[in-house]
Amino acid sequence: MTSTGTVRLEVNQDSGGKVASLVLDNPTRRNAMGRAMYATIPDLVAEVDQSPDIRVLLIRGEGREAFCAGSNIAEFRDHRLGDAHLGYDELEHQAIDALAACRVPVVACIRGACMGGGVGLALAADLRYAADDALFSVPPGFLGIGYSLDSVERLLATVGRSSATELLLTARRLDADEARRIGLIHEVVTVDRLDEVVAERCATIAALAPMTLRAARAALAGRPDAVALTDACFHSADLVEGISAFEQSRRPQFGNR
Fold first, then answer.
1. What's the pTM?
2. Contacts of 139 (CB under 8 A, 6+ apart)
3. Which residue of 84, 99, 103, 208 has the fewest C-beta atoms within 10 A of its own C-beta?
4. What own/partner pairs with CB < 8 Å and gap ≥ 24 does 2-5 have?
5. Confidence band, pLDDT 50/70/90 cuts, at residue 3
């Protein structure tokens, strides 16, 4: 019987509602992504986009064994052979694009396996923090499928041509330290401290001016709205608050306006 799994959105109350978690929940298959799971993500990201309070979206896998072991191979015979792959790939594409275009910064918290489509999801995040037990691989060559062109482009932009070529043409596994060395992840943390450190990083991001971060992310992505978003910062109440806080030697309280 195929385990389809679910994806759910949780607002972290310890953050004062400023951090939400997107949880990939299919632990019997190491959080492998099924069609229904991919299809859920755009609507959940839209909920985050519509929230006036959420400042950071954290993506993680359920349990301690895996972030995401890729797409659910149990669905491939019915949904990825021949032209059937087009509908499947579109669901995956829409999910990853929704994460990449999210209104707030996206942080990936990675422990255990991060393979194939899991790497694609992680690459859609702005920041990636991994436990020292994390393993990374891009193994479509073991199955004979084509890897998402968008994910190839993100991998190339993240780790450079040399490392991207090796990952795609050898399908070998990287441990967390090597993934950090090539720039696939930003920081390696011991397993027992991962949640604590990621919570600290998210709290740091959540305390910054949201409009400034939105403009910076647009500029980094080369989006055409980057100029307008940057200009909007100079007309914002948050800039007035930032200047006042500096003058008064206190922490700013940004209102995202």
1. 0.94
2. 70, 115, 116, 171
3. 84
4. 2/34, 2/72, 2/74, 2/75, 3/28, 3/29, 3/34, 3/72, 3/74, 4/34, 4/35, 4/36, 4/37, 4/72, 5/29, 5/31, 5/32, 5/33, 5/34, 5/36, 5/37, 5/72
5. low
User: Closest Cα partner for 212 from 241, 183, 191?
Assistant: 241
Domain extents in the chain: 6-205, 209-247
Backbone angles phi, psi at 187, to 5 degrees: -155, 145
194/189 Cα distance (integer angstroms): 6
105 Cα distance to chain centroid = 9
CA–CA dist 162, 178 (Å, integer):
14
Burial class (CB in 10 A: 0-12, 13-18, 19+), 49: middle
Q: How far is CA 248 from CA 3, 40, 50, 243, 244, in A?
A: 56, 45, 33, 9, 6
Beta strands in 111-151 (DSSP E): 113-115, 127-131, 135-137
Q: What is the rounded CA–CA span in Å between residue 248 and residue 237? A: 16
Tokens of 242: 């930032």
Instruction: Give per-residue pLDDT as tens, 66-100.
Output: 999 998 888 888 877 788 788 888 999 999 999 99
Q: Which residues contact 13 (CB under 8 A, 6 or more apart)?
A: none
Q: Which of 40, 205, 179, 159 is nearest to 112 (CA)?
A: 179
DSSP letter string, 15-41: GTT-EEEEEEE-GGGTTPBPHHHHHHH
